[in-house]
Amino acid sequence: DSCTSDEPVRLPRYARVNTLVASVAQVVRALRREGFTQIPTPSRVSAPPVPPPGRLWRDAHIDSLLVLPAGCELHCHEMVVKGAIILQDKASCFPPAALSPPRGSISVDCCAAPGN
């Protein structure tokens, strides 16, 4: 059966840069100081490729999204704690990118909580 496999699926760790707090360049520089190397974004993507350990790249579709190795533990990282990066799956990054509100506008997300 082509839908089953004994091998676990390994998805990359996505980190969205909160550009209200830090720039993508600042976050990449900080990660480089910790031993990461930025490599070019893969040009062909048929499935979510996973960067090798110690490598990262910028996402091909969302400018402020960094792609890191699977299992990269960042939940207690200083940049997460300070709000410079937000750990979320890639699909959650598309709505604000598609909305692309103009600077200074106000948006209300009325679907974010149960019961709305």
UniProtKB/TrEMBL annotation:
GO terms for cellular component: nucleolus. Residues 3-116 form the SAM-dependent MTase RsmB/NOP-type domain. Gene3D superfamilies: Sun protein, domain 3 (3.30.70.1170), Vaccinia Virus protein VP39 (3.40.50.150). Pfam families: NSUN5_fdxn-like. SUPFAM superfamilies: S-adenosyl-L-methionine-dependent methyltransferases. GO terms for biological process: rRNA base methylation. The keyword tRNA processing does not apply. Belongs to the class I-like SAM-binding methyltransferase superfamily. RsmB/NOP family. This is SAM-dependent MTase RsmB/NOP-type domain-containing protein. It comes from Calcidiscus leptoporus.
